[in-house]
Amino acid sequence: MGGWTAGDIPELRGRRAIVTGANSGIGYHTALQLARHGASVVLACRSAERGQAAFDRIKAAAPGADLVLGSLDLADLASVRAFAARFGDDPLGILVNNAGVMAIPHRSTADGFEMQFGTNHLGHFALTGLLLPALRAAPSARVVTVTSGFAWTGRLRFDDLQNERRYGKWTAYSQAKLANLVFAKELDRRTDLTSVAAHPGYAATNLQQTGPRMQGNSLMEKVTGMGNVVMAQSAAAGALPSLYAATADVEGGACYGPRLLQYRGAPAKVVTPPQADRPGLGERLWEVSETLTGVSYAEAPDPAP
Questions:
Q1: pTM, 2 dp
Q2: Fewest beta carbons within 10 Å, which of 29, 183, 249, 257?
Q3: Which tens digit of pLDDT belongs to each residue from 60-80?
């Protein structure tokens, strides 16, 4: 059965895009295809070494690609501000909030936030707000925020967002991914941007093995690696929902994922968990996020006429 593929991406020449976590996995393939179709792409990466390797790979695969490598650590708001200061001057047509961490042992960000909530949600919330003038300066700008099927099991615990009472790595991950989805919906409601969410289904990336590796659990690292080989679709296939969300005709506030049980297959609009649309949830998350990050969207100036 056919479906939307990377070959259906329209010509993007004249559009500037930023992809966070572009050095590997879904982010790499998202950046590669945007560049192949003419976009000027900023690879926003935490590791300079891995970012340069991705830069070189994309240049080899798409010799004419217009690429820039940028340093961005979403777990450090100072880094987020520095990145936005460097790349926020020119119109920005596409922002893909892709980077993230999954089910890792308890860690804190540079600003004292729980790492998964701080990186996956708060870092991207701050980045998007700081880039808002650049997004508003571009015609038909679009923001894509990558969530996960784990959002279905997520709950925003406003009395313990930082998981200080009791930390569960999967509970923290599910909360962060629900926050990504709620943010995408609320951003679409609050601004004139087109904001959508995307999720890759089960795709083979290094995320699954990072947590076990950090814990020193070599057996679980091997098990998750085998799962990637046997059951997962490729990272390139996992990037298709993000690419569809970034370039196709989409509905603001919707989510796009694999159409086969939201597990694998061609991208399509998918059903989202009912808790993501709970009245007042987006507004409350927004207010908390502005307070924690110090980034106010209301204060972000409109582009000069």
A1: 0.90
A2: 249
A3: 999 999 999 999 999 999 999
User: What would be the CATH architecture of the domain defined by 9-202+235-292?
Assistant: 3-Layer(aba) Sandwich (3.40)
* 3-state secondary structure string across the chain: CCCCCHHHCCCCCCCEEEEECCCCHHHHHHHHHHHHCCCEEEEEECCHHHHHHHHHHHHHHCCCCEEEEEECCCCCHHHHHHHHHHHCCCCCCEEEECCCCCCCCCCECCCCCEHHHHHHHHHHHHHHHHCHHHHHCCCCCEEEEECCHHHHHCCCCCCCCCCCCCCCHHHHHHHHHHHHHHHHHHHHHHCCCEEEEECCCCECCCHHHHHHHHHCCHHHHHHHHHHHHHCCECHHHHCHHHHHHHHCCCCCCCEEEEEECCCEEEEEEECCCHHHHCCCHHHHHHHHHHHHHCCCHHHCCCCCC
For the ranges 5-14, 181-190, 218-227, the lowest mean pLDDT is seen at 218-227
Residues of the chain above pLDDT 90, percent: 83
